[in-house]
Design a protein that fits this description.
Layout (H helix, E strand, L loop, with lengths): L12 E3 L5 E13 L2 E9 L3 H6 L3 H9 L9 E4 L3 E2 L7 E2 L3 H4 L10
Antiparallel strand pairs: 1-2, 2-3, 3-4, 5-6
Length: 109
């Protein structure tokens, strides 16, 4: 098993099996497993960065004002569906048709 530094993945463009750009890795989600952190999913897409803004009242107001919370473009890709063996060019391990299942739904607040 190779070691991949997460800071080398953040901001990288993700490609589909057919070479189509899906978006950029904007956030890496991990959960504690004993003394380890285990990556569970990657947030990918043009609006993934805006998701982080929604944690604050001001961020939510800005997202609503520009209608960004309702836009498509954020994927929550499970860790096992992303090949990161080449951190400079991460790619999906599933067909493009399966990508729709990973599309994040905007949260109502």
């Amino acid at each position: 098993m190779a070691t991949v530094h997460l800071d080398h993945l953040a901001g990288r463009r993700v490609f589909s099996e057919h070479g189509r750009s899906i978006g950029y890795i904007e956030e890496i989600i991990a959960e504690r497993d004993g003394s380890d952190l285990v990556v569970t999913e990657f947030h990918v897409g043009i609006f993934a960065a805006f998701e982080r803004l929604s944690a604050s009242t001001i961020g939510t107001a800005l997202l609503d004002f520009f209608a960004l919370r309702r836009r498509e473009g954020l994927y929550r890709i499970p860790w096992d569906k992303l090949d990161i063996s080449d951190p400079t060019r991460p790619r999906l391990l599933c067909p493009d048709e399966e990508l729709a299942a990973f599309k994040a739904q905007p949260e109502d607040k």
